[in-house]
Amino acid sequence: MILMNANQWMSLLGLANRARKIISGEELSVKEIRSGKAKLILLSADASANTTKKITDKCKSYNVPCKMVPDRFQLGKAIGKDARVVVALLDEGFAKKLLTLLD
């Protein structure tokens, strides 16, 4: 599931970041999934098996969509940080738009 247009989803994620509608990092993302605030989880394809399982299981049990992105460097770059493995979107609008770009 490699994305056709990396620039589109990355710039949208950057916008969401500037709007302060995202959380990055495994623990914080899990917390947001539990609290029901996470609307979409982005997981890098190069995340460890452990992290991948933890996040996907959490997403399944709390009914939060989870999408794979090519790698942690793209995910980090999109939000202007170093490599990031997990990013949670906290805004319904951004989440919906990103889902259309990532399908």
UniProtKB/TrEMBL annotation:
What's the name of the protein? Ribosomal protein L7Ae-like RNA K-turn-binding protein
InterPro entries found in the cross-reference section: Ribosomal_eL30-like_sf, Ribosomal_eL8/eL30/eS12/Gad45
- Native source species: Mesobacillus stamsii
What positions does the domain Ribosomal protein eL8/eL30/eS12/Gadd45 occupy?
Answer: 8-98
Q: Which Pfam families match?
A: Ribosomal_L7Ae
What the entry lists under NCBIfam families is as follows: PRK07714.1
Q: SUPFAM superfamilies, per this entry?
A: L30e-like (SSF55315)
